[in-house]
Amino acid sequence: MDPFYMRESIICNPGDRAIATRQVEDFMLANIKKGAILIPYFPEDKFCTLIVVHPQHSHAVYLDSGRDKKKDYTHIRALLNDALTGFANKAGPLKVERKSRGGLVLTHTTNFPCLRQSKEDNGMDAWYAILQMQEYIKYADDMLLPESLRNRFGNMADAPDREIRKNWGRIQQFICTIILQDVNNRSGEFFYGYGLPPNDEIELRLEMSRDERPFNSLEGCRPFPLGMPTTYVVYKGRVPGVYDDWEDCRRQVHRFSGNSYKGYPTRVEAEGRYARYLAGEMRDMRRNRMKTMAFVMMVIVTMLVMFYVIVV
């Protein structure tokens, strides 16, 4: 399910809301055997709420770490209700059904006790959503006991930031593991086989989402990652030159002793680098030729001197 559509600024548009509704409906059908699905939702561009949906029981719980600020869930309520109706039409009757105006609806609990931020808008909403997702999974068995669950989350609601901040590094490592095993790996559940999107496409999606937060890492803010190479320069290989395809480049350097090659994001940059490399090679050749000529001249002069000494 594309998180791009799970934000208020997108689903307020009827066309985009219809696309998001189909995505949620398909997600419910794909996970029909699971008792609940977890959906991160952005009621505002800088806030994140984790929504726990129980399709078979027609119930949705909103875990909002920044619930001190009142939020409008009108559009996401309508979206989830429409998705539930489509899900029931394809999956069959639900265990618990609630109807309104001819369609199925969820019971939306928006003030459920959960992990809470120490202050309003501290910029960590998404991290809290992930942390609450982990806590939900950890206490999955207790989900069948609503009162026990409310008490447990009620105890966590007063936890200060310093007590949970240590988990964020572990969450980052866990996300990296998912990317390596399930996204980049061909056998992974979330394998994206269409190649990496270019940086300008990523920037456009961020601009459309109005997400201006910097990229974060364990080492702090980093600049935007460099683009993937599209052109390759073979400096030392079977046939040195500029190649637009990796397979052509690989054929020139594969099992070639002392090979040297590098990828560049644009052909213009690749051709410029290769031209400078050739110019440097020409300078080295001229320099070596002059050294060779000087050595030959020195040898000739030495032989002439020795011949003169012997004759005289």
UniProtKB/TrEMBL annotation:
Pfam families: Cauli_VI
Keyword Repressor part of the UniProt annotation: no
TM region(s), chain numbering: 292-311
Origin organism lineage: Eukaryota, Viridiplantae, Streptophyta, Embryophyta, Tracheophyta
Residue ranges constituting the Ribonuclease H1 N-terminal domain according to the UniProt record: 232-271
SUPFAM superfamilies per record: L9 N-domain-like (SSF55658)
Key words, A-Z: Membrane, Transmembrane, Transmembrane helix
Name listed for the protein in its UniProt record: Ribonuclease H1 N-terminal domain-containing protein
